[in-house]
Amino acid sequence: MYAYDLHKIREAELLHRAERERVLRQVRRDRRAARRSGRKEEEGTVSSLRNRFVHAA
Questions:
Q1: Is 9 left (phi over 0), alpha (psi -120 to 50) or beta?
Q2: pTM (2 decimals)?
Q3: Which has the minimum average pLDDT: 10-19, 29-38, 39-48?
Q4: Which of 14, 15, 22, 52 is the most exposed place for a label (fewest CB within 10 A)?
């Protein structure tokens, strides 16, 4: 009986870990997709060392 209880506890831990890893993978996938869709809307690089300061007359 003791071995069975340990088995069930270990099984629950593994299931919990697997679910957490699935959620993390989904979050990462969603963030990558959001970044990719955000890149398409950009018009290009605006900030560079040359463009940061106005030239004096």
A1: alpha
A2: 0.56
A3: 39-48
A4: 52
